[in-house]
Amino acid sequence: MNAVECRDVVKSFGEPPLVVLKSLNFSIEKGEFTGITGRSGSGKSTLLYVMSGLDDLSSGSILLAGRDITEFSDREMHVFRNRNMGFVFQFHYLLPELTALENILMPARKFKLEQKKRDYALSLMESFEVIHCRDKIPSKMSGGEMQRTAVARALVMQPDILFADEPTGNLDSENGEKVMNIFRRINSELGTTIIMVTHEPDYAAMASRQLHLVDGTIDYDSAAGRKRRKK
User: CA 231, CA 223: separation in Å to the nearest integer?
Assistant: First the structure.
């Protein structure tokens, strides 16, 4: 079964409408690590947001694990997202008053699974080399430590799909490499499907598949190994 299937996906903004995504059709297999690239304004972040249900489509449909999320109620989407998806953004969005461990356990707290997930959260911290930050609040942590903590938070519910929007954008090269190595590890060891937007060609090349967007269309798909449209 595909992890994601996009069928005639269209997204527009404003009136008169500015079409940002133009009838996209593609699928992403379960366990695939896909990097989405393109210039600013190409639609790559918009695509990530509609695929994950964080933004609505203008038309078309998106299936996650065979289920059409465009037919979900708001509550169904909220529960499905929290149980099946993880999110990493350019900024860590850690709660400033909570410790690193408390931040990681926030998604579990929503389902009253905090105690059940505690040992797993600690194992993620150990694996990501932030166990020493267990009792630190974000202001006492480095940028790299905060972002790795944010990745652990995204994974604590063991999601099927991890969506990442410019996850290394605020990091230096050393910490960017650490985050990318974490992504590769969870993809290979846990089979987590990863969909990552990035402007860094070197990081995109670390994914098993690349989708390059130009003006809201897929210009290149490495799975097909060819241009998807004529210049």
Answer: 19
Written as tens digits, the pLDDT of the chain (231 aa) is: 789 999 999 999 988 889 999 999 999 999 999 999 999 889 999 999 999 999 999 999 999 988 999 999 999 998 898 889 999 998 889 999 999 999 999 999 988 999 999 999 999 999 999 999 999 999 999 999 999 999 999 999 999 999 999 999 888 899 899 999 999 999 999 999 999 999 998 999 999 999 999 999 999 898 876 455 443
Q: Helices (DSSP H) in 21-166: which residue ranges? A: 44-51, 74-84, 100-104, 106-109, 114-127, 143-155
What SS3 class is residue 29? strand
SS (H, E, C) 61-85: EEEECCEEHHHCCHHHHHHHHHHHE
Which helix (DSSP H) or strand (DSSP E) does residue 182 occupy? helix 173-190
What is this structure's pTM? 0.91
Query: How far is Cα 102 from Cα 84, in angstroms, rounded to an integer?
Result: 20
